[in-house]
Automatic annotation (TrEMBL):
<dbReference type="InterPro" id="IPR023408">
    <property type="entry name" value="MscS_beta-dom_sf"/>
</dbReference>
<dbReference type="Pfam" id="PF00924">
    <property type="entry name" value="MS_channel_2nd"/>
</dbReference>
<feature type="transmembrane region" description="Helical">
    <location>
        <begin position="26"/>
        <end position="47"/>
    </location>
</feature>
<keyword id="KW-0812">Transmembrane</keyword>
<dbReference type="InterPro" id="IPR006685">
    <property type="entry name" value="MscS_channel_2nd"/>
</dbReference>
<keyword id="KW-1003">Cell membrane</keyword>
<protein>
    <submittedName>
        <fullName>Mechanosensitive ion channel family protein</fullName>
    </submittedName>
</protein>
<keyword id="KW-1133">Transmembrane helix</keyword>
<feature type="transmembrane region" description="Helical">
    <location>
        <begin position="97"/>
        <end position="116"/>
    </location>
</feature>
<dbReference type="InterPro" id="IPR045276">
    <property type="entry name" value="YbiO_bact"/>
</dbReference>
<feature type="transmembrane region" description="Helical">
    <location>
        <begin position="122"/>
        <end position="142"/>
    </location>
</feature>
<feature type="region of interest" description="Disordered">
    <location>
        <begin position="313"/>
        <end position="357"/>
    </location>
</feature>
<feature type="domain" description="Mechanosensitive ion channel MscS">
    <location>
        <begin position="140"/>
        <end position="204"/>
    </location>
</feature>
<dbReference type="InterPro" id="IPR011066">
    <property type="entry name" value="MscS_channel_C_sf"/>
</dbReference>
<keyword id="KW-0472">Membrane</keyword>
<dbReference type="InterPro" id="IPR010920">
    <property type="entry name" value="LSM_dom_sf"/>
</dbReference>
Length: 357
């Protein structure tokens, strides 16, 4: 009977070499992962520094060109400089957000390929299956990102703009590819998803218009009141403190409504977008003093905002353009048949005689 010999136990030196090899491999993997993470932080810091430098240089160039030291003072410079500053800061915040997301994804893929080299092939199939499953749930995210990219690319909003997003109204403090941060007048910070923004009312682009409806007694002299209002508004527009905020000469649009209690006269002034509220307050105060000087009592003094059909008709001022009426042909404009030369006129047909009774 043959008895198999017992298996020889591994030598202690070989066992220790295997343990040391595993520990060395683990240590190298840890160092490699730490190096990738450190490199990602360094790359992110460098790219953010470059973006910040570029943004600061563009903003400083706009300030130097306008000969101002404060960004808020750019409202006295051409409107293009203001839009350059706001759009540059917005694009800077967007680029920093994109850099962070891109670097994190690349670092995670490199770490996964380092720790499990054979897992990327199966990870591709797994990610395709998960993507197909989450595609329906991620529609809102894709919609937010795409809409945010178009909002920034088309310069619809910028950091520092006063906007009305329908969901929130206030000052834009931060814009990302998915969410826009809006601070309202009460200090509440609203987070608005870009995909939910259907319309944007930007009150910081171009110009604004101060509209004041002044109600005077029914026995007041309309011509005298209109002359006093126009003189007061013109004095404000020529004032050294306010003339940089007024774009065009003020206008009196005339009598807006007549009632048994008061006559309403409308006064308007075109201003820079960021200076509308300040100019409106100063104008109301001066109008009040002018009416007091005339010895009239004010039933009301309102500052209104035109909207709807009235706002569309008054875009160009007191006398909006109107289309020409469609001409309606009259009896004299209708063509009359005339016989050609050499052609006899048709004989008139006599009416039939009535039979004798």
């Amino acid at each position: 009977m043959n008895i198999a010999p017992f298996a020889a136990a591994p030598a202690p030196s070989t066992w220790w070499e295997g343990i040391v090899g595993v520990l060395v491999q683990i240590g190298w993997n840890i160092l490699s992962v730490a190096g990738i993470i450190l490199g990602a932080f360094i790359l992110s810091w460098i790219l953010k520094l470059v973006i910040r430098r570029v943004v600061n240089r563009i903003v400083s160039g706009a300030k130097n060109k306008a000969n101002v030291d404060d960004t808020q003072a750019l409202e006295r410079s051409p409107l293009a400089a203001v839009r350059v500053v706001q759009r540059t800061r917005t694009l800077g915040s967007i680029l920093q957000n994109i850099v962070n997301v891109t670097i994190v994804i690349i670092a995670l893929v490199m770490i996964a390929s380092l720790l499990a080299p054979n897992a990327l092939g199966s990870l591709t199939l797994l990610s395709a299956a998960i993507g197909a499953g989450l595609g329906f749930g991620a529609q809102n995210i894709v919609k937010d990102v795409l809409n945010g990219m178009f909002i920034v690319a088309e310069d619809q909003v910028g950091i520092g703009d006063v906007v009305d997003l329908g969901l929130a109204t206030g000052i834009v403090e931060y814009v990302s590819v998915r969410v826009t941060h809006v601070r309202d007048v009460n200090g509440t910070l609203w987070y608005v998803r870009n995909g939910e923004v259907l319309r944007i009312g930007n009150m910081s682009q171009g110009w604004s218009r101060v509209i004041i409806d002044l109600a005077v007694p029914v026995d007041a002299d309309i011509g005298e009141v209109e002359a006093a209002l126009l003189a007061t508004a013109t004095e404000l527009a020529n004032d050294a403190k306010w003339r940089t905020r007024v774009i065009e000469k003020p206008e009196v649009w005339g009598l807006e409504s007549v009632s048994g209690d008061a006559l309403v006269i409308r006064l308007v002034m075109k201003t820079r977008a960021n200076a509308k509220d300040d100019v409106a307050r100063e104008l109301r105060m001066r109008v009040k003093h002018a009416i007091d000087h005339l010895g009239l009592s004010l039933p009301q003094l309102n500052s209104i905002t035109l909207s709807g059909l009235e706002g569309a008709q008054r875009v160009r001022g007191a006398n909006p353009p109107k289309t020409k009426p469609t001409p309606v042909p009259t009896a004299t404009d209708r063509p009359v048949w005339k016989p050609k030369k050499g052609e006899a006129k048709p004989a008139a047909v006599a009416p039939p005689e009535e039979p004798a009774p």
